[in-house]
Amino acid sequence: ADRAQVGRITPGGEITLYSDPAGLIDTPDSIVTGADGTMWFTSLGDRIGRITTTGDITSFPIGGGDAWGPLGLAAGPDANVWFTTASNQIGRMTPTGEVVVFDGNAAGVVFPTHIAAGPDGDVWFTNLLNGRIGRVTADGQITTFDVSEMGGALAGIAAGPDGNIWFTGATTNRIGRMTVDGTVTSFDGTAAGVGEPGAITPGADGALWFTNVNNRIGRIAVDGAITTYDTNSGHVRAPFGITLGPDGNVWFTSLAN
């Protein structure tokens, strides 16, 4: 079986997996819906991939240099694609492929992972290693906020339908909600089967959907009610990236199968 795949799950739980025929995708991570009606995702091998709703995959090199190791990916409010890198940078890529990166070290960025357009016109991201959430403006100004109550390893982040920022705590099995002025509420998902939650996305049903390394897809309502769904029946191992597709389904990446 192929190691790196992109998957689709219907509201009824039917799973379909797709592989890169060119073999260029290495450990697909974050996945988002682009303005062109396809899904875009990062590959740890310094590439960004695109998949259509029929499963056709192509990929594009980031270009090397400072922008190495793309991790998170988001469609920004400025029509560009924004991404995080393993070198503590936030990158911006135009639709034509021009890349600009902003150094986040001075602002307290440490291994930024997932990134999302916020409800305030800025772009927000999580940091995996220091329990901080970051915000970057369109011109590259970066600030970070301490949310260490969620644990040190923050993973997914998304703007919710309620106007708040939602994010996951990978080591605490918690889902967090933060207002744009910094007020944080967290929800413990352990009893519902949450295990090392990763990426999170708003769904078509008014809830947030998220992946779990323990082979489950989770759903959290804006009031904090959590349910999870087992992906073992679809032979999915370690689902991680997730997004709402233009077809109304939730799409996700699988690190292995």
Q: Can you describe this structure?
A:
By secondary structure, the protein is mostly beta strands. It contains no helices and 24 strands. The strands form 6 sheets. A 4-stranded antiparallel sheet has the order 2-1-24-23, with no helix packed on it. Strands 3-4-5-6 form a 4-stranded antiparallel sheet, with no helix packed on it. A hairpin with a 3-residue loop joins strand 20 and strand 21. The radius of gyration is 16 Å and the shape is globular. It starts with a strand and ends with a strand.
Global Rg: 16 Å
Order of helices and strands: EEEEEEEEEEEEEEEEEEEEEEEE
Helix segment tally: 0
Number of distinct beta strands = 24
Q: Please report the distance between the alpha carbons of the first and last residues.
A: 7 Å
How much helical structure, as a percent, in the residues?
under 10%
Q: How many strands, what sense, and barrel or not for the largest sheet?
A: 4 strands, antiparallel
Q: How much beta, percentage-wise?
A: over 45%
Give the neighbour order of strands across the main sheet: 2-1-24-23
Low-confidence runs (pLDDT<50, min 5 residues)? none
User: Class by helix and strand content?
Assistant: mainly beta
Q: What is the mean predicted local confidence, pLDDT?
A: 86
Shape: globular
Topology:
Elements: E1 5-9, E2 15-19, E3 28-33, E4 39-43, E5 47-51, E6 57-61, E7 70-75, E8 81-85, E9 89-93, E10 99-103, E11 112-117, E12 123-127, E13 132-136, E14 142-146, E15 154-159, E16 165-169, E17 174-178, E18 184-188, E19 197-202, E20 208-212, E21 216-220, E22 226-230, E23 237-244, E24 250-256
Antiparallel strand pairs: 1-2, 1-24, 3-4, 4-5, 5-6, 7-8, 8-9, 9-10, 11-12, 12-13, 13-14, 15-16, 16-17, 17-18, 19-20, 20-21, 21-22, 23-24
